[in-house]
Amino acid sequence: MNPLMRGMTQPRTRRDVFRLTGLSAAGLALAACGVQGQKVAPPKADAVADYWAKQTKNGKVVFANWPEYMPEDKGPLERFKKDTGISYEYKEVIQENAEFFGKADPVLRAGQPLGYDIVVMTNGIQLQHMIELGYVVALDQSKLPNFQANAGQKYKERAYDPGNKYTIPYTSGVTGIAYNTEYVKDDITSIESLFDAKYKGRVGMMSDAQEIGNFGMIALGIDPEKSTEADWKKAGEKLKAQRDAGIVRKYYDQSYIDAVSKGDIWLTMAWSGDVFQRQLAGEPVKFIVPEEGGTIWTDNMLIPKGAANPVDALMLMDYLYQPAVAAELDEFIQFVTPVPAVQDLLREKAGTAKGAAKKALEEMVDSPLMFPTEADYAKLRSYTQLTTQQEQVFNPIFQSITQA
Amino acid sequence: MRRLTPYLLALPSWMWLAIFLVVPMAAMASVSLQTGNAIDGFAMTFSFSNYADAIGAYSPQLLRSLLYGGLATVAMLVIGYPVAYWIAFKAGHRKSVYLFLLLLPFFVSFVLRTISWNFLLSDNGILFGTLKDWGLLPADFHVLATTFAVVGGLTYNFLPFMILPIYVALERVDPRVVEAAQDLYATRAAAFRRVVLPLSLPGVFAGVLMTFVPATADPINAAILGGTSNTMIGNIIQTEYLTNLDYPTASALSFTLMAVLLVGIFVYARALGTENVLEAAAR
């Protein structure tokens, strides 16, 4: 106790102060060189070929993914192990893109390996940064036969990664509205319900700047993908008015799903697969895509720079595009699979199944949220592509609402 | 050689301080004056305006954090002092049992404890759901997503750091001193006010320091228990670092918070009369 208080309350001698200042100044000089930027040009084709020519199969792969994104028995990975003899480590270490990128950036910046061979990230600002900063290994297109043969056309033509140069999709999902049917008796169809004073204090919105920004724009009839700075500001005003009227209870991360199933909030922005998994657990939640539109996003597999087993990683990425494997995966996670053939496989399986399992499978096959038709896709908007400069305008507009 | 020995023995701790405190702080001070972005890199421009901009943009959250930290500290003092007093003087030979019980919840991670509050205080959860079913509370009553929830969470999470130092100070008070006061015709209240309380002030001082500082900077309680207008400065710093990769703003805010807290502590030390406290502690 004593020395602590003495240290804080008694004046130091002049020499002490001088010494401390000197030390700090030395530290400052050390650190003054700044943080280096690393923006890189895309690698040339022969550099990619060179890289892959040097790699060999190592018989193991480390897969970093999001929670609840793989059946509990790890069926697809076990199959992969049996078919190829490659052993796997599966780690559920990614909870949020921003946070994951924030942690990975210093490691990759220093040229050190992350320790993962496959990483799954959503299309958006952070994935864009990964690619811009040269943190992602360019894929060897010749080693993706299953992807080429079985991926849906939409999943081969993604605006944020033309030519599938760095990533291939893991799964897609829809951001829409979930509501608790115990408390909300009306059928929710419109995004306007989220702005309805009737549900004052019972509405959940997402804290992610892109997600909430998108919904603000969709409510105003603006397509986020074609939006301008003026549109963002208009959306910001609409969302601020919603907040100031006390309609929003809280800006949520993944925890919205607990809040809506417990009834703390009655309706909320939501991710499709989360809600289906809760429905299976018997909770009174329902998911809809608003008539004004929702957003579709894609989680993508990539190989981070410095990965120890890139050949094995690429084999696994491609393996997941075998229709039977993709079907096994999608039956559990219930998001939108990039392999259209899965729908027929699940339909066949429903034909031979019995009882509750049959009913569950039939519902999956018919669900527009697992197998959207062209008309469904037409209602879904994509994230807007932001440059770093735009991001520095975009984020504050929406963070000043979610973090006031 | 013998004269050097103490210095050599102290060397590891000095190295530790230099590597893990001085260098990072200096690096942070440097970054707080840079401009740029994470993609193109940051360059030193000695832009002191980073501080003005950050404080200008986030002063409401900064003031709110000080308010919440202060409220929680007062609440902890009010709750914690009697507990420490009771354990020190009335718990007899079971003292260590009660101290252990006090610490038991803290074997569970901080975040999990806060999330379980979220579960407990849920609008229709085991507590309020039941009370609402009995008609004791209006249907739209809620505690989550309010200031009360955040301050309550902070109070709960840091309470032992208030109780333990006060307990240590009270434990050292010789009961015979109190008896002597009573022999000299002090009432029980007067004996407490003039003898026990002054002797325990060093513990109170330490307790307030150990709770006010982390409670003010804490981002977890506001994130889990708060609503739309309970964002604290810790949440802002976290977002600036991890989401926006705006290292200069985050560093400037961290330094500002540190400066504000240091000034607050100096003022507090003066106000409490350091002389007396030191004297009491030295006894």
TrEMBL record, chain A:
InterPro entries: SBP, Sperm_putr-bd, TAT_signal. GO terms for cellular component: periplasmic space. GO terms for biological process: polyamine transport. It comes from the Bacteria. One of its GO terms (molecular function) is polyamine binding. Residues 1-31 form the signal peptide. It is found in: Periplasm. SUPFAM superfamilies: Periplasmic binding protein-like II. Keywords: Periplasm, Signal, Transport. Pfam families: SBP_bac_8. This is Spermidine/putrescine transport system substrate-binding protein. It comes from Nonomuraea fuscirosea.
UniProtKB/TrEMBL annotation, chain B:
SUPFAM superfamilies: MetI-like. GO terms for biological process: transmembrane transport. It comes from the Bacteria. The chain crosses the membrane at residues 7-27, 66-87, 99-121, 141-170, 191-213, 250-269. InterPro entries: MetI-like, MetI-like_sf. It comes from Nonomuraea fuscirosea. Residues 62-268 form the ABC transmembrane type-1 domain. It is a multi-pass membrane protein. It holds the Pfam family BPD_transp_1. This is Spermidine/putrescine transport system permease protein. Belongs to the binding-protein-dependent transport system permease family. CysTW subfamily. Keywords: Cell membrane, Membrane, Transmembrane, Transmembrane helix, Transport. It is found in: Cell membrane. The keyword S-adenosyl-L-methionine does not apply. The keyword Transmembrane applies. Its main location: membrane. GO terms for cellular component: plasma membrane.
